[in-house]
Please model this.
Amino acid sequence: MAEVEAIKDLDKVRLISHLLEIRCSKQMADIWNIGLNLALRISDLLSIKFTDIRDGRLIIFEGKTGKRAEIKLNEKAQLLINNIQLKHRNHIYLFQSYRNRQSINRKPKPLNRRSVTKAFMLVGEELGIRLGTHSMRKSRGFHLYKKTNDIARVMKMLRHSSEGVTLRYIGIDQEVIDTDFVELEI
Model:
């Protein structure tokens, strides 16, 4: 699987949302926008049930690590989630599969990862970037780091255990470090 990147330009973040909605579906744009705000792995994001959300908080156990993630929902995430819930009152999953014939008259299932990957790759190809399902998580981490310059805070949000892993994950590479040296004169 190809390495995907953090989206470092906020205008491009918004453009991706727009393109996902017009090229794919509102549901794909919602996955992008909520994913950016929750910084979860795609498997955890797609497995969210409405019952996992209580009092403005999402509480889940991460599939990969088994760690408990308790995330206070920001206003944007809460609004998007509320809109989805209003539109699909009988859904169990936040991102429930409901469009294809296989989902009719069957036990409810979340949207599958392959569908999301395909939609993201389509938009990424159009923009000439390596866009994938991890781009949401990486982008959130990158922008938090740029805002705070606090790698420990980013590590905690992403639930990583190493600074080096987190820096590499969010795309702080030699090029960024070089730029920081050139731009910051003391």
Remarks:
- Residues 7 and 139 are 5 Å apart (CA to CA).
- Residues 10-183 form a domain with the hpI Integrase; Chain A fold (CATH 1.10.443.10).
- The chain has one domain: 10-183.
